[in-house]
Design a protein that fits this description.
Structural class: mainly beta
Order of helices and strands: EEEEEEEEEEEEEEHEEH
Strand content: 35-45%
Distance between the termini: 90 Å
Largest sheet: 5 strands, antiparallel
Shape: elongated
InterPro entries: Jacalin-like_lectin_dom, Jacalin-like_lectin_dom_sf
Family: Belongs to the jacalin lectin family.
Protein name: Jacalin-type lectin domain-containing protein
Keywords: Lectin
GO molecular function: carbohydrate binding
Radius of gyration: 35 Å
Length: 227
Amino acid sequence: MFKLEPIGSTLFSSDVVWDEKGHARISYIYVTFTDDGIKSIQFIYFHEGVHVESKKHGYSGGKHTTRVKLENDEYLTALSGVYGEKRITSLTFHTNKRSHGPFCKRDYDISFMRKIDVGICDRSEFCGLFGSFSEVKYGGYLTSIGMYVSHNTSIIDQDPRTRFGATYDDHHFVRSESLDHTSTSGHYQCPNIVDGFPVNPIRRRESKLKDKILSKFNKAIRFLLNL
């Protein structure tokens, strides 16, 4: 399991940290925010067949409260947001079906936009969220949010594949025939690779008439020299 670098900053030691590691079957997300930032966030997730409420992370005092409802076959795949003025001023949840947000959308420089997207394509790869809020005396806003992800073993345990799409076990080689120099039918058979480009066998070159005449002429000269 990996803890990805979050959107926002974790440099402030006074921030209040929250963690929902392992709570991946999220069904509802409640977000409370003002025009200046995210004030609180809370999750409802499935655990052992029942809905369970997480702790409310953050503080009261938000002007707007929004509920994000995820369908039974919907799961988080990415996060995007803007961090400025020591808080997150825009937040969007991305799923395998749609995008929810942005929440607390303020005018911002596009260079401040950040997205966490590692190509999640299976529910088992998302493993929960984490983040932090500033103290009340500093505004009590969401200062960071990140994701836990895991490799999907159903994918990585498969046989490695070549660029042509076949697994390495799909390579079969034809046994090479013996090279018979005395027979015109003898030839060397190149390996026939199933996953690749076909290669024609290299056949033995037939003797030309000129070569045969020269060969007989040389034999005649050697016979005369031996007399």
